[in-house]
Structures are given as C-alpha cells and as structure tokens.
Amino acid sequence: MKLLVFSDSHGRLEPIQSIIRAHADTTDAILHLGDGAAEVLTLRARFPSIPFYAVLGNCDSYTYSDFGITQDKCLSLGGYTLYFCHGDRFGVGGGTGALAAYAAYKHADIALYGHTHIAHEEYIPADSDKPDAKPLWILSPGSVSLPRDASQSSFGILDLSERGVLFSVGRWADAKH
Predict the structure, then answer these.
(1) Which helix (H) or strand (E) is 151 found in, with range?
(2) 151 within 8 A of 157, measured Cβ to Cβ
(3) 50, 29 contact by CB (below 8 A)
(4) Element (H or E) spanning 14, and its range?
(5) β-strand partners of 134
(6) Cys-Cys with 51: which of 29, 57, 82, 136 at CB 3.0–4.6 Å?
(7) How far is C-alpha 64 from the geometric centre of its chain's CA atoms?
(8) Alpha-carbon distance 85 to 150, whole Å?
(9) pLDDT digit string (tens) for 12-45?
(10) pLDDT (tens digit, 9 = 90+) per residue, 106-135?
(11) Packing angle between helix 37-46 and helix 14-23, nearest 10 degrees?
C-alpha cells in the first residue's frame, strides 16, 4: 500500500496537486497532517478516487471537523496501525517523546506528525522488558509549502507491505517561497 503524506500546506494547493497528479496511478490513500484543511476539501473533490485522511493543525479552523477532519486519527492501513496528528499538542518542536508515548498507548506501529516543517524519520525498537511492546516508526514529511530544513518543499511517500515499512521524503523542486 502506497500513501502520500503531506503537512503544512498553509493555503498552497499547487504543490500538493502536482505531486498527486504525478503519483495518482500508484497511490492508495493520502494523509494530510494539518495546517491545510481547506486544501484537503478541494483536493478530495478533484481526486475523488483516492481516499483522503486529514487532521487539523494549529492554524486550521475547528469548523473543518464538520467534514471529518479531526484533531487526530488512528487507522489501520496496509496491515499497520497508524496514529497521526499535527504534533503541536505533543510539543514535537522539542522532541518526539510525548508523541511516541501516546502512539504506543494507542498501539500504533507508525506515528506521523507535522507542525515542525522539518522532515524526520525515527525508529524505536520494541522494549524487550515489556512483553506487549512493539517497535514504532515516527515520521514527518516536512512542509509542502514552507520548509525549514531544505530549500525545496517536501512530502512523504509511505510504502506499507508485509515485508515492512519504507518511508521516503520527496522534494517538490518547483516550490516558490
């Protein structure tokens, strides 16, 4: 299963639209990790054959919850449990410890977040002292419109299979800042 992962589009529709067009034939679903609820509604209409899952960011209006865009989500996709949120309420700018603890509490295999505008990939192996513990991937695609870690906007490609989890960060070279 191939997922496109976006965050922090902040009103910029073109980067996401171009990336989706380039990957539409091979994408099973799209995740948006906040600060782009308005774009999600537009993109759902333009790409009706691709499922969209989205959460609210700290710059999104809570009125978008009427459209199924909530503060966080926990989904089973491709044989994995994904927990995703914007990340601000977990203080991800200062580290991912609180997010990791909450994702583990939700029995997630993968935790995805935005907010920092910085792409990030982290793997936490299972704690051998806890019999019910399992490994956790913590992933952020960076920002599709206002990157802080690169000169180009970024997005994530998350491939889920029985062989494992593969996360790649893509760059959108045509971004205008």
Answers:
(1) none
(2) no
(3) yes
(4) helix 14-23
(5) none
(6) 29
(7) 17
(8) 22
(9) 999 999 999 999 999 999 999 999 999 999 999 9
(10) 999 999 999 999 999 999 998 867 777 799
(11) 40
How many Cβ atoms sit within 10 Å of the Cβ of residue 135? 13
Do 144 and 154 meet the contact criterion of CB atoms below 8 Å apart? yes
Structure tokens at 126: 């299972």
Cα–chain center distance at 140 = 6
What is the rounded CA–CA span in Å between residue 112 and residue 40? 17
Place of tokens 């309420």: 89
pLDDT on residue 70: 93
CA distances in angstroms from 27 to 20, 68, 95, 117, listed in the order given: 8, 21, 30, 23
Q: Are 142 and 155 in contact (CB under 8 A)?
A: yes
Residues 6+ apart with CB under 8 A from 8: 33, 34, 35, 36, 57, 114, 115, 117, 142, 143, 144, 145, 146
- Categorise residue 166: left if φ over 0, alpha if ψ from -120 to 50, beta otherwise: beta
127 and 139 Cβ atoms separated by less than 8 Å: no
**Side-chain half-sphere exposure of 126, counting CA atoms within 13 A:** 11
Residue 84: both structure tokens together? 């995703």
* Percent helix, percent strand, percent coil in the chain, to nearest 5: 25, 35, 40
Radius of gyration of the chain (CA): 15
